[in-house]
């Protein structure tokens, strides 16, 4: 490996394992009293012996079903919790030492947790972060102005955070987390619960930030659009283990190989329409309800299939849309393949 390639790696994880220990508690008052004398200890292995590297300037998507170990890995990488075994290095630091210099160069944003002061306007939290991260006054002002304009929240800076909508608050969370211009950002579900326009704006904002600052992001998401539009590589976790890791382009070629064409018909689907569809031997479709048809086809064939449908049933179609497969279905298909 060349010297250049070695210095490009900003996150290095080797044989990382995290086990949580916890106790069961029986129900009710008698259960609580019983618990004082006898507690059953349980262990959950959330991350099992995983290894990977992330290069500077890349956006890596951590994908997996609920409980796969994504958040646990991000918490270890940001120094919030300690691993059980294995080696982690972020920007050359061991995260759990939580050195001031390290914390100044990273950020962790959790879509379902807030770092803002709930009863104060967001601008107060921004000034608090300015003090914590020792950001120069002029830099602070220019960065804040820039982000506020990009995210369209200028008029909301002086409103109490608890009065903001979910999407507005998420934009403020991003500003608070990025004011110190972190080089490595851990994003846990950044678009959870947001409408499509807000999701789109936040993705563009993040792309712009990475491009301009050569920052590195690891993000977890159950939203395929986040992965498709942001990530250049993908790591798939299942029960704490990495079952797939590749560049996003290869992932698309390997796994993300079908499209669903949804036809909304003007009238309930008749036998005659089904007959016309089945004339195309390889066409796989299912009907959903009275007048929805879902045709699944390979990516390369999707244009031909749309052309075929338009030729054969155009008069009957009220609406047509093309969708990528559902994220969880794709993950499940990889699990089955790996199994
Ligand atoms: N503090 C804890 N104590 C005990 N078990 C925990 C703790 N935190 C997480 N776990 C368990 O570890 C496993 C991995 O959890 P984690 O939050 O990392 O999953 P995830 O992939 O982020 O899931 P999701 O997509 O639902 O957010 C889960 O089975 C969870 O129940």
TrEMBL record:
Q: Which SMART domains match?
A: AAA
Identify the species of origin: Parasphaerochaeta coccoides (strain ATCC BAA-1237 / DSM 17374 / SPN1)
* Pfam families cross-referenced by the UniProt entry: ABC_tran
Q: Which UniProt keywords apply?
A: ATP-binding, Nucleotide-binding, Transport
Q: Which stretches make up the ABC transporter domain? A: 11-264
Name of the protein: ABC transporter related protein
Q: Which InterPro entries match?
A: AAA+_ATPase, ABC_transporter-like_ATP-bd, ABC_transporter-like_CS, ABC_transporter_ATP-binding, P-loop_NTPase
Question: What PANTHER family does the record point to?
Answer: ABC TRANSPORTER ATP-BINDING PROTEIN (PTHR42711), ABC TRANSPORTER RELATED (PTHR42711:SF4)
One MF term in the entry's GO annotations: ATP hydrolysis activity
């Amino acid at each position: 490996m060349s010297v250049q390639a070695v210095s490009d790696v900003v996150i290095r994880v080797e044989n990382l394992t995290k086990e949580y220990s916890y106790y069961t508690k029986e129900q009710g008052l008698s259960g609580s009293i019983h618990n004082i004398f006898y507690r059953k200890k349980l262990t959950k292995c959330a991350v099992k012996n995983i290894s990977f590297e992330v290069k500077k300037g890349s956006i890596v998507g951590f994908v997996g079903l609920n409980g796969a170990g994504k958040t646990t890995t991000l918490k270890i990488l940001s120094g919030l919790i300690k691993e059980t075994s294995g080696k982690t290095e972020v920007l050359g630091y061991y995260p759990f030492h939580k050195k001031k210099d390290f914390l100044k160069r990273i950020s962790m944003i959790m879509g379902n947790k807030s770092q803002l002061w709930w009863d104060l306007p967001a601008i107060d939290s921004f000034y608090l972060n300015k003090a914590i991260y020792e950001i120069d006054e002029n830099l602070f002002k220019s960065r804040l102005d820039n982000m506020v304009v990009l995210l369209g929240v200028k008029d909301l800076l002086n409103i109490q955070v608890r009065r903001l909508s979910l999407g507005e608050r998420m934009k403020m969370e991003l500003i608070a987390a990025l004011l110190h211009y972190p080089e490595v950002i851990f994003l846990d579900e950044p678009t959870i619960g947001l409408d499509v326009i807000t999701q789109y704006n936040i993705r563009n904002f993040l792309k712009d930030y990475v491009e301009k600052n050569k920052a590195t992001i690891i993000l977890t998401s159950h939203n395929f659009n986040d992965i498709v539009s942001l990530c250049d590589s993908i790591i798939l976790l299942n029960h704490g283990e990495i079952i797939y890791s590749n560049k996003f382009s290869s992932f698309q070629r390997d796994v993300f190989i079908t499209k669903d064409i949804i036809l909304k018909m003007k009238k309930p689907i008749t036998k005659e329409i089904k007959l016309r569809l089945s004339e195309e031997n390889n066409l796989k479709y299912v009907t959903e309800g009275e007048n929805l048809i879902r045709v699944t086809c390979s990516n390369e064939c999707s244009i031909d299939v749309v052309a075929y449908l338009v030729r054969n049933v155009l008069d009957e179609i009220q609406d047509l849309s093309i969708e990528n497969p559902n994220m969880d279905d794709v993950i499940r298909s990889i699990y089955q393949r790996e199994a």
